[in-house]
Amino acid sequence: MTAGLTTHVLDTSRESPASGVEVVLQRVLASGDTERIAAGTTNDDGRVEDPLLGPEEMVTGTYQLLFEVGQYYRDGPSESSFLETVPVRFVIDDPEEHYHVPLLLSPGGYTTYRGS
Hints:
By secondary structure, the protein is mainly beta.
């Protein structure tokens, strides 16, 4: 697989993809501040269609994905108001590799992992 950064969101409580979730990618600067560098919205398959970082944009460093799940819950599958924004902070240490960071979501919690 080509180097880059991709993501998707699965709603484990519904056993289906979570569509319409806005995802923001930020670079974490040495100061601790963040800089927005990309964004996308999940499609009907729960995936952001285009990579958030392509091969030429991959740079070592610390990044953060912000999954805006509050609106997803207000618009659809449950009445839960517990989660609003799910942050996932991770490190790209080899820009020649592919990084896939999925979010497994339920109304009361979430998990993530480095996928393939």
